[in-house]
C-alpha cells in the first residue's frame, strides 16, 4: 500500500504536467502540419508539371548594320525582334550576315551570345513576337533601312558587341537557348555594295539586250560602222556609264607625286587625267560606299623626276613610294582589302608604268592598270588592263594639230620621221630611208619640211614602236586624217575592247618591213578611202578637250575602266567573282 501509494504519489506528481505538455505539443504540430503539407504539395505539383527547360530567355536578331543594337531601351529606332525559344534541340541559324562570318580564306564561324550578353539583350527587350511576326518585322527592316557595310561592329548601350566580318565576341551560350528563323521567308539585307552591284547587273543586262535592239538616239554622236566591234552594245554601255558610273579619288598624298602630273609632254595623259578627274563632278563621288572603282592618283612620270635618282639607277624608291601609298589607303579605308585591289585602278603613260605596278603583287595581278605601254610581253593583261593612247601635247589645246585634205588630195604613199631607238626602227630605216619616192622615211626631216604637213599629205603614216611599244604617232596620224600603219610586237592598241582597229589601220609585222610598199600598194583606192573616212570618224575618241567632251579620250579611258569593272562582282566578304 505504501509502495502503491508512493507510485500513485509519483504518478500524481508527474501525470498532470505531462498531459499538459503533450496537449500543447500536439496542437503546435498540427498547426505546423497544416502549414507544411500544402507547401510540399504545391512544390511537388510545380516540380512535376513545369518543364525543366527555361522558356523565359528570349533571343533577338537584328540587321547587321544598325548602330547600337536597337534592343536597347533608349533606342529611338526600336528594331529588336524577340523570338520565343521552343526546343532544346533548335540552334541559332539567322542570315549569314548577322551571325555567320567568312574570313579571307573562306572559313566560316557562328556567333552565339554569352550568358551576360543574353541578359543584356533580354533586359532591354521589346515585347515578345511570334516567329512569323519576327520574320515579318525583319523583312520590313530590310526594306526600309540602308546599311553601310558588313565590315562593321554592332554595339549597344549594354555592351553587346557582334563583329560581322570577324570572330564573334562572347560566343559561349549553349545552342539549346536559341531558335532558328525560317530563312526561306527572309530576304538578304542589302548593303550599299549590294546596291552598287545590282546597278551593274542592270547595266550588263541592258548592254546584252542592246545587241539585238534598235539603234539608240543621241544628240551628240551615234556610234555606227565597222570601226566598232559592236556599235549598239558600245553605245548602250557608254550611256549606262554616264548614268551610274562613280569613281572615288583618294585624297591622300601631296603634289608633285600625287594629284599632279605632266600636262604638256609625251606623258601628258598622266597629268591631264589626274587633273580632270580631280575637278570632275559628274563621275567623281565623295562617298566611297557609292563608288564602283577607286583611283590611285599617283604619277609615275613625277616619281621618276622627284623620287628616282638617275645616278643611282635604283628603282626601289619608286617601289617604296607605291607600296607606302597603298598601305596608307588600305589602313585608312576598307576598300582595298575588301577586293584585294580588284576595283582599284592606276594610270601611267611613262615607260616605267608597268614596272611601278610590279611593286605590289595585287596591284599588278588584280587592279586595273591603264597604261600607254600596253605590252603583253611585259604582263599587260587585256582582260583587266586598259590600253590608253600616248598623246604628245604642246599646249592644252588641239589648235593646229588636227586637219588635212581629203583622201584624193594626198600625194605621199607613206611617211615616217623619228629617232632611231628600239629594235624595230633600225630595220625600217635600213630598208626605206631615202630609198623610195613613195615611202618617205627619215631619221631627221630636211630643213624647211614641216612634220605635220608631211602627215597631212600622206595616205599612210608609219608608226613603229621605239624602246616601248606605244608611240604618239598613232594619235598624230588620226588627228591629221592619215591611216596609221602599226609596226610593233606584243602591242595592244588603245580602246581595242571597243574599236576594231583593222577597219581603219594597217598592221605590218617586223618581218614584213621589206614588203611594206607592196603591202600598201595592194590596198585598193576604194578600200583606202573607206579607211580614211573611218579615221576621221573614230578620231573623236582620241581628242583631248578642256573641258572634256562626250566620247573624247577622257571619257573613253573612263569607259574602258567601266568595262573592266563590269567584268567582276565584289562582295563584302572579300569575294571577287568574274563575270
TrEMBL record:
GO terms for cellular component: Golgi membrane. It is found in: Golgi apparatus membrane. It is a single-pass type II membrane protein. Pfam families: Exostosin_GT47. Keywords: Glycosyltransferase, Golgi apparatus, Membrane, Signal-anchor, Transferase, Transmembrane, Transmembrane helix. The chain crosses the membrane at residues 32-50. Its main location: Golgi. InterPro entries: Exostosin, Exostosin_GT47. Residues 242-522 form the Exostosin GT47 domain. Belongs to the glycosyltransferase 47 family. This is Exostosin GT47 domain-containing protein.
Amino acid at each position: 500500500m505504501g509502495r502503491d501509494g508512493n507510485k500513485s504519489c509519483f504518478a500524481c506528481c508527474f501525470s498532470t504536467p505531462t498531459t499538459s505538455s503533450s496537449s500543447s505539443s500536439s496542437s503546435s504540430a498540427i498547426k505546423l502540419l497544416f502549414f507544411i503539407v500544402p507547401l510540399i504539395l504545391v512544390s511537388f505539383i510545380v516540380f512535376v508539371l513545369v518543364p525543366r527547360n527555361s522558356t523565359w530567355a528570349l533571343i533577338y536578331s537584328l540587321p547587321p548594320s544598325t548602330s547600337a543594337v536597337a534592343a536597347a531601351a533608349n533606342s529611338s529606332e526600336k528594331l529588336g525582334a524577340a523570338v520565343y525559344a521552343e526546343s532544346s534541340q533548335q540552334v541559332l541559324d539567322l542570315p549569314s550576315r548577322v551571325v555567320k562570318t567568312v574570313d579571307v580564306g573562306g572559313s566560316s564561324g557562328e556567333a552565339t551570345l554569352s550568358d551576360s550578353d543574353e541578359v543584356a539583350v533580354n533586359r532591354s527587350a521589346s515585347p515578345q513576337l511570334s516567329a512569323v511576326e519576327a520574320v515579318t518585322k525583319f523583312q520590313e527592316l530590310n526594306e526600309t533601312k540602308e546599311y553601310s557595310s558588313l565590315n562593321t561592329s554592332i554595339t549597344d548601350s549594354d555592351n553587346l558587341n557582334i563583329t560581322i566580318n570577324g570572330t564573334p565576341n562572347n560566343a559561349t551560350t549553349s545552342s539549346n537557348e536559341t531558335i532558328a528563323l525560317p530563312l526561306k521567308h527572309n530576304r538578304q539585307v542589302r548593303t550599299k555594295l549590294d546596291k552598287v552591284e545590282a546597278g551593274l547587273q542592270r547595266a550588263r543586262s541592258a548592254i546584252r539586250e542592246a545587241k539585238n535592239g534598235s539603234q539608240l538616239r543621241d544628240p551628240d554622236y551615234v556610234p555606227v560602222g565597222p570601226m566598232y566591234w559592236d556599235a549598239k552594245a558600245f553605245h548602250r554601255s557608254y550611256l549606262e556609264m554616264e548614268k551610274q558610273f562613280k569613281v572615288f579619288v583618294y585624297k591622300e598624298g601631296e603634289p608633285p607625286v600625287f594629284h599632279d602630273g605632266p600636262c604638256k609632254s609625251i606623258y601628258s595623259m598622266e597629268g591631264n587625267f589626274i587633273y580632270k578627274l580631280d575637278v570632275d563632278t559628274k563621275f567623281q563621288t565623295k562617298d566611297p560606299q557609292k563608288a564602283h572603282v577607286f583611283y590611285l592618283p599617283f604619277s609615275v612620270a613625277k616619281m621618276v623626276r622627284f623620287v628616282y635618282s638617275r645616278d643611282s639607277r635604283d628603282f626601289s624608291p619608286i617601289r617604296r613610294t607605291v607600296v607606302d601609298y597603298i598601305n596608307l589607303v588600305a589602313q585608312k579605308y576598307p576598300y582595298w582589302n575588301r577586293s584585294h585591289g580588284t576595283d582599284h585602278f592606276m594610270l601611267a603613260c611613262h615607260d616605267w608604268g608597268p614596272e611601278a605596278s610590279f611593286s605590289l603583287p595585287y596591284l599588278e595581278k588584280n587592279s586595273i592598270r591603264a597604261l600607254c605601254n600596253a605590252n603583253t610581253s611585259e604582263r599587260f593583261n587585256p582582260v583587266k588592263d586598259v590600253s590608253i593612247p600616248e598623246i604628245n601635247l604642246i599646249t592644252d589645246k588641239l589648235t593646229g594639230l588636227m586637219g588635212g585634205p581629203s583622201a584624193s588630195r594626198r600625194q605621199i604613199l607613206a611617211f615616217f620621221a623619228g629617232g632611231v631607238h628600239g629594235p624595230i626602227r633600225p630595220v625600217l630605216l635600213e630598208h626605206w630611208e631615202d630609198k623610195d619616192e613613195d615611202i618617205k622615211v627619215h631619221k631627221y626631216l630636211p630643213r624647211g619640211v614641216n612634220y605635220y604637213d608631211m602627215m597631212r599629205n600622206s595616205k599612210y603614216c608609219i608608226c613603229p614602236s621605239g624602246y616601248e611599244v606605244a608611240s604618239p604617232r598613232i594619235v598624230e596620224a588620226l588627228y591629221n586624217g592619215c591611216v596609221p600603219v602599226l609596226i610593233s610586237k606584243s602591242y595592244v592598241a588603245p580602246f581595242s575592247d571597243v574599236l576594231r582597229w583593222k577597219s581603219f589601220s594597217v598592221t605590218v609585222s617586223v618581218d614584213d618591213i621589206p614588203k611594206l610598199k607592196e603591202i600598201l600598194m595592194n590596198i585598193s583606192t576604194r578600200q583606202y578611202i573607206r579607211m580614211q573616212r573611218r579615221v576621221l570618224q573614230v578620231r573623236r575618241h582620241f581628242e583631248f578637250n578642256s573641258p572634256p567632251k562626250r566620247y573624247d579620250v577622257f571619257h573613253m579611258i573612263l569607259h574602258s575602266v567601266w568595262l573592266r569593272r563590269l567584268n567582276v562582282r565584289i562582295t563584302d566578304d572579300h569575294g571577287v567573282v568574274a563575270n
